């Protein structure tokens, strides 16, 4: 399976007739003889999770994950917004919701990635944690820049739909060269973010996030990389479907798409705040 810039899709086991690599076949993926030509051996009828994954599985699981994140985010935002004073200190409850959601989401994402096993409850819990974090953060930005949260949501949805259309029409082909470029670019911006964070904490120098021209360019670059990362995510989902991965792996695909959506939303939110300065 081709590599991806999304850590959720790295080193996944293969289904169908492909080799499984050092991790062996996915848990619960029993393969009898026969199967559908071109899709590898079919699953047993031991349960619904043993049937091959379909596009509908990916759409439903991703929709459920996104719905949980939006629901929790809206509820959190409605609760937090009246408490935020744009000219005063951040309320402890709002800060606690923001930090708590961020930390829980980070821990759950690491567990899901390193376990390399699909889990509906953990994916939905991750989505809820991110909804809590983004809802509280969006309330803070909304207090400072009214209307910015809705603009960021619309922008994120627009980029996602646009890249899906680009992928489905074949306007941009996912090739090994493009994959390497996106992976390299993602690693590069991650390193820059780390050094910028160290610089901000140690010296108060924050050029990539201070709202200046360099920060605007950096956010545009991050948005571009996140957008192209969707192409790799879509391609990985297609490959998992073609290789006959069990339907429960749609949860893993949904998790991977959610991580990219969260990153994209954050970068669009930042960029819009810079342009409001």
Automatic annotation (TrEMBL):
Keywords for this protein: Membrane, Transmembrane, Transmembrane helix
Record flagged with keyword Disulfide bond: no
Organism: Amycolatopsis melonis
Name of a matching Pfam family: BaxI_1
UniProt name for this protein: Bax inhibitor-1/YccA family protein
Transmembrane segments: 58-81, 93-114, 123-141, 147-169, 181-205, 211-234, 249-266
Region annotation (Disordered) ranges: 1-52
InterPro entries: BaxI_1-like
Superkingdom, natural source: Bacteria
Transferase found in the keyword field: no
């Amino acid at each position: 399976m081709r590599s991806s810039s999304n850590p959720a899709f790295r080193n996944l086991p293969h289904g169908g007739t492909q080799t499984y690599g050092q991790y062996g076949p996915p848990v619960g993926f029993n393969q009898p003889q026969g199967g559908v030509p071109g899709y590898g051996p079919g699953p047993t009828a031991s349960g619904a999770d043993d049937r091959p994954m379909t596009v509908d599985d990916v759409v439903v699981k991703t929709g459920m994950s996104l719905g949980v994140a939006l629901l929790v985010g809206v509820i959190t935002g409605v609760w937090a917004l009246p408490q935020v004073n744009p000219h005063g200190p951040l309320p402890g409850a709002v800060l606690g919701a923001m930090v708590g959601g961020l930390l829980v989401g980070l821990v759950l994402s690491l567990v899901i990635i390193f376990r390399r096993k699909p889990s509906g409850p953990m994916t939905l819990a991750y989505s809820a944690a991110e909804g809590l974090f983004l809802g509280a953060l969006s309330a803070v930005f909304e207090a400072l820049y009214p209307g910015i949260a809705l603009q960021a949501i619309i922008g994120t949805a627009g980029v996602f739909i646009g890249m899906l259309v680009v992928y489905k029409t074949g306007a941009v082909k996912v090739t090994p060269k493009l994959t390497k470029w996106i992976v390299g670019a993602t690693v590069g911006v991650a390193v820059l973010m780390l050094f910028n964070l160290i610089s901000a904490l140690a010296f108060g120098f924050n050029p990539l996030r201070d709202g200046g021209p360099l920060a605007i360019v950096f956010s545009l670059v991050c948005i571009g990389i996140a957008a192209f990362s969707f192409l790799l995510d879509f391609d990985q989902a297609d490959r998992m479907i073609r290789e006959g991965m069990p339907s429960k792996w749609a949860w893993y695909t949904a998790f991977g798409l959610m991580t990219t959506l969260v990153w994209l939303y954050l970068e669009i939110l930042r960029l819009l705040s810079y342009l409001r300065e």
